[in-house]
Predict the 3D structure of the following.
Amino acid sequence: MKKFLTCCVLLLSIWSFKYVSSNRGKIPPYFPQPKSKKVENLDSNSIELGRVLFHDAQFSADQLVSCASCHSPFNSFAHTDHSISHGVFDSIGRRNAPALFNLAWQDKFMHDGAAHNLEAQSIAPLTSATEMGTTLQNVLNALNSSPLYLDLFKNAFGTAPSIPKALEALEAFQLNLISYESKYDQVILGAQEFTAQESNGFKVFNENCKSCHPPPLFSTYDFAYNGLPIDSNLLDLGRYELTKNSCDSMQFKIPSLRNLSYTYPYMHDGRFQNLRQVLSHYSPSNGILEKSPLKKPISEDNKSDLIAFLKTLNDPNFVFNPSHQFPKWTLSYNTNQHEN
Ligand code: HEC
Ligand code: HEC
C-alpha cells in the first residue's frame, strides 16, 4: 500500500512536471523579444526544484522565512501585509517586496537596479541579515542531508546538490513566472471586448501613463522619477544610491502595472494602499500637478475609468496557478522509500 501511494505521488508529480513544462511555449506573439533567452528553453525538472527551494523556509536562520514569505504566489509574488519587508527574527528591511513576473524581459533588478543577474541575485536574500540570514555553506549542508533534495538535484541535473545548481533552479522557476492571461491580453487576441468604461480608461491611460508603463509589459523597466516626495524616515534616494549621479536621485525602477489588485501596497516603500491614492498622487484633486509627470490633471470620472482599465491587467490564472504554489507533494514525500 505504501509503495502504491508513493507511486501515485511520483506519477502525480511527473504529471505536474509536464504541466509546468507545457507552460513555456505560451509566450504571446505580441510580447517583445525576452532579454533572457533562457526563458525559451527551461527544463521542467529544474523549474520544479526551483519551486521547492523558493518555498522552503528551512534555509533561513529562524527556519521561518522562505522566498515565498515575502514573494507570495497569491500576491503575484509580492507581499501585502507590510509596506516594508520583514525577514528573519522580525527584522525590518528598507523597501517593499516587488512582484515577480515577466522577469525574462528585465535585465536590471531591485527598485534601484542594483542586481543585473537573476541567477546570482538569490544569494542576496539568502545571506542578508534582514531577509533569510543564512550562509551558503549552511544551505549546502541542508541540501546534502535531505533525501528529497538529493533526488530533485539528480532529476534536474544528474548531480549531487551544489550552490550554483540551486541558483540555476531558482532562476528557472522565476523565469517561468510569465503573466500573459489578463482580460487585456484576451482583448488584444480578439477573444474579449472592453466595456465602454474600460475603453475610455485605456484612452486616459494612453494619454497619461503609457510613456513609462507601455503595453504589453506595462513598463519600460527603465528608471524614472514619478514625483514622489522622499520619505523622511527611510531617506531612500533610489538609483542615486547606486550610481551617485545626481540625475538619478529619487529614480526608481518603473514597475509593471499588471496584477495591481494583488500587489498592493504600492511604490518602493509601499506608501499607497490603493489605486485611488496612487491617482491622487499623480493628479491631486486640487488640480495642481507640481512634481507629477503628468501634463494636465485627470478628472475624477476619468480616474474611475482608468482604474477600471487597470483592473483588466489582473491575471487570476497566473496568481492562482497551482504549479506556482507551495509544492504540497513534498510533505508526503516518503524518505523511507529513498533507495541508495
Ligand atoms: C524578507 C523579505 C524577502 C525575502 C525573504 C526575499 N525577498 Fe526578494 N525582495 C525583497 C525586497 C524588499 C526586494 C526589493 C529590494 C530592493 O529593491 O532593494 C526584493 C527583490 C527581489 C527581486 C528583484 C525583483 C525586481 O523586480 O527587480 C527578486 C528576483 C527577488 N527578490 C527574488 C527573491 C528570491 C529568489 C528569494 C529567496 C531566495 C527572495 N527574493 C527572498 C524581499 C524579500
Ligand atoms: C515618468 C514616468 C511615469 C509616468 C508618466 C507614470 N508612472 Fe507610474 N510609476 C513610475 C515609477 C518610476 C514608479 C515606481 C516609483 C516607486 O517605486 O517609488 C511608478 C509606480 C506606479 C505604480 C505603483 C506600482 C507598484 O507595483 O508599486 C502605479 C500603480 C502606477 N505607477 C500607475 C501609473 C499610472 C496610472 C500612470 C498614469 C496616470 C502612471 N503611473 C504614470 C513612473 C511613471
About this structure: Confidence is low (pLDDT under 50) at residues 4-24. Residues 65, 67, 69-71, 85-87, 93, 95, 97-98, 100, 109-112, 118, 121-122, 125-126, 131-132, 170, 174 surround heme C (ligand 1) (CB under 6 Å).
